[in-house]
UniProtKB/TrEMBL annotation:
Species name: Perspicuibacillus lycopersici
SUPFAM superfamilies listed in its UniProt record: P-loop containing nucleoside triphosphate hydrolases (SSF52540)
Protein name: tRNA modification GTPase MnmE
PROSITE patterns registered for this protein in UniProt: G_TRME
Domain of life where this protein originates: Bacteria
Task performed by this protein: Exhibits a very high intrinsic GTPase hydrolysis rate. Involved in the addition of a carboxymethylaminomethyl (cmnm) group at the wobble position (U34) of certain tRNAs, forming tRNA-cmnm(5)s(2)U34.
Binding-site list for GTP: 233-238, 252-258, 277-280
Annotated InterPro entries: G_TrmE, GTP-bd, GTP-bd_TrmE_N, GTPase_MnmE, MnmE_dom2, MnmE_helical, P-loop_NTPase, Small_GTP-bd
């Protein structure tokens, strides 16, 4: 497909020693040539592909030097976008790259939308949708593991599995068609049923296997939403500070110190935590604190993991019991803090309330218990040493939802076969699941979704 020529700054604005203006499209090389002057007098129209050239960017109308640059010339289709690509390497600095970009735009290029380079790579068939989404994940990855998952997806690992499943479904649908066309064979109906049932079971099993990785995959990609809760003054903010190794949250001996929800990213043995400190939950007359308590309750509901802090130096209160009630059924670790102070806490009752969940004995003052806590978190989500390299993780919420949908349709197909529903109805369910799987790779998908997905990219990507 032939598109217009687009350009953008592909490096952080005004940071770093080099800044890159990237151009892609049919006029990329001509535009670059128009504003480039080499000391040797060569023109960019005649150079070999995948070569880089020293020279100056010149505003030829005013015969004015704009920048000293290195220009890469890459001719399609063996490029990032499969189109002609030019990269102008400028001196870093906001003004310098901006001047070059402005000049490029006056020569007929259009400013690129966020993600538009990667979108071209997709539309021109170099990568599929899940690979393009992986490019974005790669940029946002916060741990090595998350990065490995993104790299695997970018290489097309998930796409390959999905394509194989779609192929299987397509083959069985074709076979069913053939069988319908030759009804004169006696046992054709039974054969068709058996075939459909076997294939549906196989596909279902494969989807299930992928979905089994989704819990860990989602954590790796988005971070484990971890909320620190507990009554005022038990040491929640101190715990957050211990995790991030600095005094991010204000700690005082005044109960009700934390008023707002404080969020920090931490890497706990390869598990990315989106750690949230909350206002201590209690009944209060203070309006500001009450809003804080409300927010605490709200983030609590969306948590993947609760870190519930209680005070070794205080007796259990009705509020503690209520909190245990609130987190029923949720993943939680109980942290008994202030172990350096005399015991007033009834440990036996805490054990009962914990309902088998891990209890960590800690003192934020003496820096005790953090190792045990980190160990508990990592083994809770990644038992043993996981090898990200030989597992295909499904990490993206869009993919997870589509896999669940496809599975539902397969289930309906299976139910249909087993309860003697007419074959053409079963075919419809199988076809739907084939289409749904195709939305993951972008083989069956509409423009609106594509635009929405790519608009989430950064500018110049
Ligand atoms: N300067 C620069 N660095 C960059 C990028 C870029 O666009 N420019 N990339 C942008 O994100 C990433 C590299 N990604 C790329 C992916 C594919 C191709 C490419 O040309 N693929 C062709 C040819 C492969 C080959 O030579 O064998 C192809 O797949 O057909 C280029 C870059 C990271 N670093
Ligand atoms: N002795 C002792 N004091 C601690 C320990 N951990 C925290 N503290 C102190 O307890 C007080 C309250 O700590 P914070 O971390 O602010 O408690 P919080 O749970 O965030 O309190 P709110 O934000 O008011 O809900 C501070 O004076 C801390 O220094 C500990 O292990 N031992
Ligand atoms: Mg606090």
């Amino acid at each position: 497909m032939e598109f217009d020529t687009i350009a953008a700054i592909s490096t952080p604005l005004g940071e770093g020693a080099i800044g890159i203006v990237r151009i892609t499209g049919p006029d990329a090389i001509k535009i670059a040539d128009d504003i480039f002057q080499s000391p040797s007098g060569k023109t960019l129209m005649e150079v070999n592909s995948h070569t880089i050239h020293y020279g100056f960017i010149i505003d030829k109308r005013e015969n004015k030097k704009i920048e000293e640059v290195m220009v890469s010339i890459m001719k399609g289709p063996k490029t990032f976008t499969r189109e002609d690509v030019v990269e102008i390497n400028c001196h870093g600095g906001l003004l310098s790259v901006n001047r070059v970009l402005q000049l490029v735009l006056t020569k007929g290029a259009r400013i690129a939308e966020p993600g538009e380079f990667t979108k071209r790579a997709f539309v021109n068939g170099r990568i599929d949708l899940s690979q393009a989404e992986a490019v974005m994940d790669l940029i946002r990855a916060k741990t090595d593991r998350a990065m490995n998952v993104a790299l695997g997806q970018m290489e097309g690992r998930l796409s390959k599995k999905i394509r194989k499943l779609r192929q299987e479904i397509l083959e069985v649908l074709a076979q069913v068609e053939v069988n319908i066309d030759y009804p004169e064979y006696d046992d054709v109906e039974e054969m068709t049923h058996t075939l459909l049932q076997e294939k549906a079971k196989y596909v279902k099993n494969e989807i299930e296997k992928l979905l089994e990785t989704s819990k860990q995959g989602k954590i790796l990609r988005e971070g484990l939403a971890t909320v620190i809760i507990g009554r005022p003054n038990v040491g929640k903010s101190s715990l957050l500070n211990s995790f991030v190794h600095e005094n991010k949250a204000i700690v005082t001996d005044i109960p009700g110190t934390t008023r707002d929800v404080i969020e920090e990213y931490v890497n706990v043995r390869g598990v990315p935590l989106r750690l949230v400190d909350t206002a201590g939950i209690r009944e209060t007359e203070d309006i500001v604190e009450r809003i804080g308590v409300e927010r605490s309750r709200k983030v609590l509901k969306e948590a993947d993991l609760i870190l519930f802090v209680v005070n070794y130096n205080e007796e259990i209160t009705e509020e503690d019991r209520k909190l245990f009630e609130t987190i029923k059924g949720m993943d939680a670790i109980i942290i008994i803090n202030k172990l350096d102070l005399p015991q007033k806490l009834d440990i036996e009752e805490i054990k009962k309330l914990a309902e088998g969940r891990t209890i960590i004995y800690a003192s934020m003052k003496d820096d005790k218990g953090m190792d045990e806590l980190e160990q508990a978190i990592s083994s809770m989500y990644f038992k043993g040493e996981i090898e990200t390299s030989d597992l295909t993780y499904v990490s993206n919420a869009r993919h997870i939802a589509l896999l669940n949908n496809a599975m539902q349709m397969i289930d309906e197909a299976l139910f249909g076969v087993e309860s003697g529903v007419p074959i053409d109805i079963v075919q419809i369910d199988m076809t739907k699941s084939w289409e749904t799987l195709g939305e993951i790779t972008g083989d069956s998908v509409h423009d609106e979704l594509i635009n929405q997905l790519f608009s989430q990219f950064c500018l110049g990507k």
